[in-house]
Amino acid sequence: MNTSKFCCLALLSIASLAGGGCATLGESEKAARELVARKTAESSSPTALVTRYSGALESFGDLLEKYRPSGKVLYVQTRGIGDATGLSHPLVGAELPGDVTEMVRSAINRVGQRVVYVPFQPDYVIAHAQQGSKIQLTQPDVLITGAITEFDRAIGSAGKGANARGVFGGGRGQTDLSWDRKSATTLSDLSLDLNLIDFSTQTMIPRVQATNTIRVLNQTYENGIDFAIYGNAFGVVSNTRYLQGRHSAIRLLVDLSVLEVLGRHTNVPYWRCIPNGKADPVVMDAIKRSYVKNDTPTKVKWLQNTLKEFGFPLAATGTLDDKTRLAIDEIAPRFNLAKPADYLDADLFAGIYVNIPLKRLPPAEAANARRLTS
Length: 374
Prior knowledge:
Blueprint: H1 3-42, H2 54-67, E1 74-78, E2 82-83, H3 101-109, E3 115-117, H4 122-130, E4 142-168, E5 175-198, E6 203-229, E7 232-243, H5 246-266, H6 281-292, H7 296-308, H8 322-331, H9 346-353, H10 363-372
Parallel strand pairs: 1-3, 1-4, 2-4
Antiparallel strand pairs: 4-5, 5-6, 6-7
């Protein structure tokens, strides 16, 4: 068999071996092209950076309007919030941002008028004061501190692969043919800690902190065909890689953690701003303790004022009358609250309080509420 026959045989073998992987190879190339096209289209003009928690922070501002009608503003300041893992250093590859303070500031400022960020720029203020400017300084109520505290790289990984190799001919006509297919998935964890300090006393506020972790995904797919004759190699390799950005992941952590810290400090049900959010036991416990401290008439007034938010035309008399009991009997099943043996139970009050409607009741529901209490 001469050299040309060996080449023909080798090329036919390549076609047969690659056939099983052609679909995957084509799909990988198609996915890569679609990804590039999509990213190119997205980057053709500047766009606002929005995370899944950006809207939650804005909704949190609306929540404060409902639960804190006094209009009191919370003034917030931050210290430098950076990287406590050391992985932001250039000598280790600068894998993480060294400072995320500006991300925290942006998240705080997104809440709205009820939460105001107070910058700390003494050099700037002193320089302007020396020029005769009169600057009125606002003292913050609370101070946010924290850092990126964990980056566990490749905490879990999985992969699979397949390969085939063939040798044809001998001597000067020997041909080597190989085919490989590999895929791998790697997971890493990033954690952020935030704490809240009372500015006037410079002490940490107990149980008002956020420690959250996000999982970063790295996926790689590879298909390769190698064809060698007389030591000369011909190869085709396809790589598709999907890597979630660490900086984007950290911004998600920042937005969620700021929401959690401010929600715990203000004792409002901030989890209602998050899709599929679950009740925070710290906030629920604070609401119950505040309620239990009151005497009986005040507890009844709190209940009556809360029920009025659902559309029940009750007066805050402080007397547990039949209209108030009927309203509680109607509301409790809506939120899967146990049938009350004690209408002044703290769990019952907290369960109703954190579900106050954020929008005006539809006419049909409001009419039904009036009929029940008439």
